[in-house]
Design goal:
The longest helix has 24 residues. This protein is mainly alpha-helical and 222 residues long.
Length: 222
């Protein structure tokens, strides 16, 4: 509605018209994408419930590095979780990061798919020989994406919130990617996701011109 300033748009930054040198950008707001965010998180929980109900161990479809059958784990990994504690601990940071992503200039779902694909490919190529499951790689990928894109786009608020989420989620972004021998935590999945997010943010937003959001921006998207 014209004249009504949307606080979320101002807080997280309004979208620009696509820059000719910036790929996969679009105008969008958090309100426009909240249903998709909820549906994505709900799908993760639906798979978790199905894993309880079905006589098949869905976690066997996780990512196994350098294994042809393990390739199916690249898209499946974010939807598979070991137990209730695992999925609960991933749900809150993932939801927050997806909301922040909805407020940035890049196409949110292109970013999600690209982080999953590139992070999964890196993990499949270089990860430890184990079955990797969980959305933590995506979480670290989105965190890295928001940090790097926030820097290039001059969006301080989502950058700071992403840092806070990273700190609360895993102690810090760095401790989550430090190699740990014989660890049951997929630190290599975290590292692969973070690298994927940082690379994508650089490619998608390196030509962005940092600026403060304006009232006109908010009104144009209301």
């Amino acid at each position: 509605m014209t004249g009504l300033i949307n606080p979320l748009v101002i807080a997280f930054g309004a979208s620009d018209v696509a820059h000719p040198n910036r790929i996969s950008t679009m105008q969008h707001t958090i309100q426009q994408e909240i249903k998709g965010v909820v549906a994505f998180v709900a799908a993760i929980w639906a798979v978790f419930v199905l894993d309880w109900v079905l006589p098949v161990d869905l976690n066997s479809f996780g990512l196994v590095p350098r294994s042809l059958p393990g390739l199916v784990g690249i898209p499946a990994m974010p939807f598979l979780h070991a137990n209730l504690q695992h999925i609960v601990s991933n749900t809150v940071p993932l939801f927050i990061l997806l909301i922040l992503l909805a407020g940035c200039r890049a196409n949110s779902w292109v970013v999600v798919i690209a982080v999953v694909a590139l992070g999964g490919a890196l993990l499949w190529l270089f990860g430890r020989p184990a079955t990797h499951i969980g959305a933590s790689g995506l979480i670290f990928g989105l965190t890295a994406f928001l940090l790097v894109s926030g820097f290039f786009e001059g969006r301080v608020m989502p950058l700071l919130i992403a840092l806070l989420v990273a700190f609360l989620y895993g102690g810090s972004l760095l401790t989550g990617i430090i190699p740990r021998l014989h660890s049951q935590i997929s630190w290599d999945g975290h590292l692969a996701g973070a690298l994927a997010g940082a690379i994508l943010a650089y490619l998608l937003t390196r030509n962005s011109q940092p600026r403060a959001p304006t009232i006109e921006d908010a009104n144009s998207l209301a």
